[in-house]
Amino acid sequence: MKKLLSIQLVVALLITGTGCTKFSDDINVDPNAPSKASNAQLLTYSISQMANVIESVSGLLYVQHWSEKPYTDNSRYTVVNFDFYDIYTQPLQNLQTILNARNFDINEGSVNNQKAVARILKAWFFWHMTDRWGDIPYFNALKGKDNFSAGYDKQKDIYYDLMKELKEAAAQIDNGNKVVGDLLYTDMASWKRFANSMRLLMALRLSKADPAKGKAEFLDALNSGVFTDNSQNAVYIHLADAANQSYWYYVANVQNDR
Amino acid sequence: MNLYVKTYRHSTSCLLAGGRPKLLSRHKALFMRISILAILLTFSGLLMARSGNGQDLNKIIISIDLKNASLKEAIKKIESLTQLAFTYRTADVAEVDHINYQASKASVNNVLADLLQHTGLQYDQVNGNIVIKKINKQEQLTNITIIEEATFEGGIRGRVIDETGAPLANASIVVLGTDRGTAANKEGVFNITGLKAGKYKLQVSAVNFTSQITEITIKDNETLDVLVALKEGTGKLEEVIVTALGISRKERSVGYSTQEIKGDNLTVAKEQNVLGSLGGKIAGVQLSGSSGASMGGTQKIQIRGTNFLTGGGEPLIVVDNTPISNSNFAIRNGRDYGNLAQDINPDDIESINVLKGPAASALYGLRGQFGVIMITTRKGKNAQKPAVNFSSAYSVEKAGNFLPLQNTYGAGSSLSFPTVDINGVPTKFVDGTWDESWGPVMDGTPVRHEYSFYPGDPDFGKETPFVPHPNNIKDYFETGHTWNNSISFSGGGQNTLFRLSYNNTDMKGIEPNTWLKRNNLSFSGSLNVTPNLVVSTSLNYANNKARRPSQGYQSLGSRNMYQWFQRNLDMNKLKQYKYADGTFYQWNVAAPKNGVYTSRTSPIDWNNPYFDAYENPSNDSRDRFFGNIGVSYTVMPGLKVNGFVRQDGFIQNIDGRNAEGGRGVPSFWIGKYESKEMNYEFLATYNKEVGNFSFGANLGGNLMTQRYTYLRQETQGGFVSPGFYDITNSLNRPLVKNILRRKEVRSAYGSVNLGYKNTYFIDASLRRDISSALPPDNNAYLYPSVSTSMVFSELLKVAPISYGKIRASFAQAGSDIDIYQTTNSYAMREPYGTNFPMYVPDTLKNPELKPSLGTAYEAGLDMRFLQDRVGFSFTWYYQQSENAVMNLDVSGVSGYSKYVINAGNIQNKGIELTVSGTPIRMKNLSWTSSFNIARNKNVIKELYPGINSLILDQNRYSSVDMFLLANVNESFGSIVGNAYMRDTATGKILLDATNMPMYVTNHNFGTVLPKFTGGWQNTVTWKNFDLSAVIDFQKGGQFFSWTKMLAVKSGQAAETAVINENGKNIRDPLTDGGGIKINGISSSSKQEVTAFVNARTWYRNNLGTRIYEEWLFDASYIRMREIRVGYTFSKANIAKLPVKSLNLAFITRNPFMIWQKAPKGLNPAELATGATSFNWLETGQLATTRSFGVNLNVSF
C-alpha cells in the first residue's frame, strides 16, 4: 500500500509540476476571432473605410454649411483636435498587411494585381491625410512594433513618393486574375486609370508650389490614361442595411427623426 | 517513590475501610486487586498525563532563599523559578509561616520535602500541577464515588478544580475521538464509563478557563483516577487556523498576517452579499459596495490598497479550499448583477480567514498575488444529540439620503412661460423638450401640462396649475422587504459527520418592479470508512432569480431623475403611464400640433421612469453549483495523503429589452453564460514531533481547467412583428456574440515547517505553476516564500503579557495574464452584400508576455495581555508589483494603437493595526470591542521606458474630458480635469470679461485612493440582552459626481434657487436685484471683483459644464454598517418549549451615515459599480437603502 502510494505521489508530481509544460496547440489561440484573413477580405474592409474618411461632417459643421439638432456641440467648435490615428490603424494597416503577406492566393488575384491595388489605395489614404494635415509620418509608419515613434516627414517628400508609388503601381498591374473583394471596380484597367487620375490631380495641386514637377507628372499621368467619363469614377456605393448606410442618410433621417 | 505509594495505600485502605461493606464483603479480594491495579494505573496514567515538557521534580534544580516567608510565598517563589504550577487550599497552607530556608542548586523534590516536613502537608504531582494537601485528610479523594458495576470496560473518574482547589461545577469533559463525554457535577466530580482499552486524549474545559488536554491510558476493567486543575484563561487551547491550501497550522507558528472572522459575526444583520459582511472587521480589508437597491449587488473587496497597475487585482476566494468564481457581469451604466460570491449562504460559514498578501498566499502561486479569502463551511459535530437550527428574518427597506432639490422653479429655460398655438390661441404650456428646471416660478398658473395633450389622460385638454411636487423623486421609491429563512440539521457519530442546510431569500426592491429570489442548499458529510480512511464531501447549490434596477447614466432607470428632470412633474401622474388607448405618457416630448398627440410619442432622451420599470425590465437567473469530494488516507501516524476533486460551475441567463413606445429602436437581447472550473488536487502532509522539535512537510499538486462560454444575441433594426420579444423577430440580421474561453494550469508545490520548543518557528514554501495562457516556450514560474515567528512570551514570562509573537516573512506570488494575449487574430465587420470584410485589430498582442509578480516583505507583532483580555496585532508590509500586463498606448502611426506588454512597477507599503479587548467583564455585563485601522501608501515607480503616464480610465461628458491617470512618481490613480484658473498670489478664481470663471484643463487633483480605512466593532452583553454594532470608515480619497454636477446644471439642485444678499432669489433678473454674488479677480485688470451674475449662466453654462473641480468630492466617511439588539430567552422561559435556545433580535443594515464630507444625496461608501476597478466616478448611484427588521434564531 505504501509503495503504491509513493508511486502515485511521484506520478502525480511528474504530471503536474516537473515536466509537462506542453499544452494542446490551440488552447491559447483565440477561438472567438478568426486567425486567418484573406487578402480579399482585408481589401474589402479598407475600401469600406474610404467612405468614413470623406463623409465626415465635422468640416461642414465648422463652417456652418450644415447644422444639427438637438446637440449642437460640433457646430460650436467643441472638438478642436482631429487626429489621423484611425486611418493608420484601420484601412492603412490592412493594406500594409496585404503588402507584407508572404502567401498570396491566386484565386484572389495575381500577386502583382493584389499588391498594386493595395499600393494605390494606400496612396489614396496618404494623399488625403497629407492634404489635410501637411507633414505626417509616412516613411517610417506602419512598421508595427519595430517603430513606435515614427517621425514626421515633409509633405514634399511624401508627395513625390506618392506619385512614384502611383506610377509604379499602375505599371505593376498585369493580365493575371483581377482582385477579389473589390467594391469599386470589376476590372484592372479601371485601377490603372484611377491611379493615373490621382496622379493627375496631385500634380495639379503642385502647380503653384512646385511647377516643374507638377507639369512633368501631369503630362506623364495624362498620357498613361485617366478618367474620360464619369462612369469610370471611383464610387463607393452604400447599401440599404444599417451597417452599410451612408452617415449622411443616418444623420438626416434616423438620428434627427424625433 | 515510596512516599507516593505509601500515601495511596493509605488512601486505598481508608477507602476500603470507609466504603461500602456489602460490596466489599462479597468481592473483597477482587476489589483489593482492582484497587491496587487502579492505584498503579492511576500512577502510571498520571505519569503519562504529564505534558510533553517532562517535569521530573528530581531534575528541576533551583536555588531559593526564604526569610520569614509564609509557605504561600515560598510556593510562589518556586513557581516563578520554574514552570511548575501549584494548587492548594489557601486555608491549608496559611497555617505554615515564618519559614527561614535556604537551598542552593537543590532539586524541587528535595526543596518541597524540606518545606513540607512536619507541616502535616504533602504534595502530589498531577498533570504538570503540584497539588499540596493535608496528609490523612482524605476528603478530596473520598468524595469520589466508587464505580458500582462489578465488570465493566475501562472508565475514568475524576475531579475538576481551579487553581485555588475549588471545584469547577459543570466543567465539560470529552474523550476526544469517541462519543464519550460528560459534565462535572456541583462538586466538580465526573465519571465516564464504557471505554475500551487504549490511549485517549481527555479534554477538560470550562468557561473562562483554559482548556486542557491530557493523555490517558485505559486498561480493560480498570478505572482511572484523574484530578484536573484548570487555569483561568480565554478557553483557547492552542488556537488553530486554516492557512493556504487548507493546511491547518497552530496560530503561533504562522509567520505572516492573517485575520479570522467567525461565522456568527457574518450573520449579525443578514447581509445579502456575504462579502459585504466583512466590511469594517478586518484591518487592511476594505469593502466598498453598491447600493442595497441592487439586492445583492457588487461588493468589491480590496486588500491592502490598489496593487495592480491597471487597478484590478481582486483576491481569490476559496470555499473549503475550492476556488470559486467571483466574476462580476455588471458595468458602470447598467444593471448591477453583483459579484458571484453572493451565491454563498452566510449561514453555512464557520469562519473566514483572510490571507492578506503574497506572504500568506504564496502557496497559491499564480492566483495568490492579491491575497486569498478562505471560507470554511460548517460541518457536523460528533455530539450526542443532533442540532437543528432555524433562523428567520424579516426586514423592510426604504430609500434614504435624498439630494436636496429646489421646489420654486419648474421646467424650462427662462423665467417666462413658453406658449404654444392651440386652435389659434397662444397657450402657456410646460415644454417637455426641456429636461431642465430653469423655467418659470411654479406659482399655480394654469398651464397645459404634457399629459393634457394625451387623449387617454383624465386631464386631457385641460389647463392645470403649474405647481411644485417636492417629493416627486422620493415618491418613486417603494418600501422594499426581505424575507430570509434558513434551517440547518447537523450531527454526527463516531464515524460520521453530517450537515444539511437550506436558505430561502425573497426580496422586493425599493424600485418598482424589482425583486430577487434566492435558494441555497448545502450538504457536507464525512465518513471514516476505516480508522485510516476518511471520505468526505461538500456540495453547495445556489439558485438566483432577479429583476434589478438600472444604475449609472443612461435613459433606463431612475438615476436620471436627479440629473435631468422637471420639478413640476407629478410622480403619481407618471405612475399611470399606460393609457387605455395603447399610448404611453411620456414627459420628455415636444408639444404636439393642435394640442393633441395623434400617435405614440417618442421621448428625446428620457423615458417615463415607470415605463422603464415595467416595460423595459431585465431578468437574470443563475444556477450555481460548487463543491468537492475528497479522500484522506492516513498511511502511518503523522503521514496523511489527500486527494480532492473540486468544481465550481454556473449557468446564467440575462435578458433585456427596449420596448416600443419609448426612446430608441425596439430591441431585445439575451445572453447565456456557462462556466466550469475543475481542480484536481493532491496533497500529502506529514507531521512529527521529536523532543523539542516539531516538523511538518506538505507536498502536492493541482490540475486546474477552466471553460467559459458566452452567447449573446440582440435584434437589430427593430421588430418584424411589434411586441414580440424574441430574437427571431429581428428586422435585420441579429447581432451575435459567441465567446469561448479556456485555460489550464498545472501546479506542484511543497512546504516545510520547523518548530523548536513551541516557541521558534520557520516556514518555507515553493510553488511551480505552468499556465496555458503564457507563451508556450516560457510558461512555468516559481513562487517561493519564507516566514518565521517567535513566541517571545514563552521566553520571558512577564506578568501582564499572556502571549507575544513577533513575525517576519518574505514571499513572491503572481498573477496570471489573461488568455489569448500571445497570438494575433483578425476581427470581422458586418458583411457588405456578399463580401465579408475583416480587419487587423488595433491591439498588437505579444508572444513574450510574463505573468505579473508580487514581492512582499512583512513583519508584525501580536500581543495579548492580562490573560488574553486585551491584545493588539500590528503589521508592517512592503509589496512591489511588477510586470503588470497592460495595453500600452502607442502611436497609431505604427498601425496599432495599443501594444500588450508587461510594464510597471508599483510599490505599496503600509501598516495595519487591530486592537481588541474586553474592557468590561462582569457577571452580568460584558463589553468586547475591536478596532482596526490600516494605512496604505503607494507610488508608481515605473511604467515603461519613455512613458510617464498611463490613462487608466476616461470620462467624457458634453465634450469635456476627465482622466484617471497612473503617473510615475505619484500615487496611483490621479484625477486630471478642468479646474478653476486661479490668481497665483491670492488663490482666488480668475474671471473673464463677463464675470464668468475661467478654467484650466489637465489639472492634477491628486490621488483617488484613501489615506486610512478601518472599522470598529462592539459587542455588549447584559444579562440576556446582546447588542452589537459595526462601523466602517475611510479618510481621504476622492470621487467625481455626475449626479451633483447635472443636478446643478439642470437647475434642480437646491443651491440653484437660494435667496441672495439682496433678499431676492438668485434667479431673479439682475435688474431686480437677483443674481448670485460672486467674488474673484478679473483676469484683465487683475483687480478683485465682487458682482452679481446671472444664476443660470453661472451654474448651467459654466460650473455645470466646464468646471469639474466643483464636482470633485472628498470621499471620507464614517458609516454605521449594522446594528443588532438581541434578547436570548432564559432557560426558564423556554423550558416548556421543545427548543434548546431562542434569540430574538432587532437588526438594521446601513441605518445611517455618521459623517461624510461629500454633500447630502451622495454616498461615498457606495461608489462601487460592477466590474470597474476603481471607485472614482459616480455617474448615477442608486438610492441609499436603509434596512430595518427582526431576526428570530431557534435551536432545537
Question: What descriptive keywords fit this protein?
Answer:
heterodimer; A: 258 residues; mainly alpha; Serine Threonine Protein Phosphatase 5, Tetratricopeptide repeat; 9 helices; 0% strand; B: 1196 residues; mainly beta; Immunoglobulin-like; Ferric Hydroxamate Uptake Protein, Chain A, domain 1; 22-stranded antiparallel barrel; five-stranded mixed sheet; 13 helices; 62 strands; 47% strand; disordered N terminus; TonB-dep_OMP_SusC/RagA (chain B)
Q: What would you note in describing this structure?
A:
The complex is a heterodimer of chains A (258) and B (1196). Chain A has nine helices and no strands. Chain A has 258 residues and is mostly helical. Chain A has one domain (43-255): Serine Threonine Protein Phosphatase 5, Tetratricopeptide repeat (Alpha Horseshoe), CATH 1.25.40. In chain A, 53% of the residues lie in helices and 0% in strands. Chain A has helices at 2-18, 39-54, 58-62, 85-100, 111-133, 155-172, 188-205, 211-224, 247-255. The longest helix of chain A has 23 residues, at 111-133. Among the domains of chain B are: 2-230, Carboxypeptidase-like, regulatory domain (Immunoglobulin-like); 263-386, Beta Complex (Ferric Hydroxamate Uptake Protein, Chain A, domain 1). Helices cover 10% and strands 47% of the residues of chain B. Chain B has a 22-stranded antiparallel barrel. In chain B, strands 15-21-22-18-19 form a five-stranded mixed β-sheet. Residues 1-26, 35-54 and 137-152 of chain B have low confidence and may be disordered. Chains A and B meet through α1, α2 and α4 of A and β33, β36, β37, β41 and β42 of B.
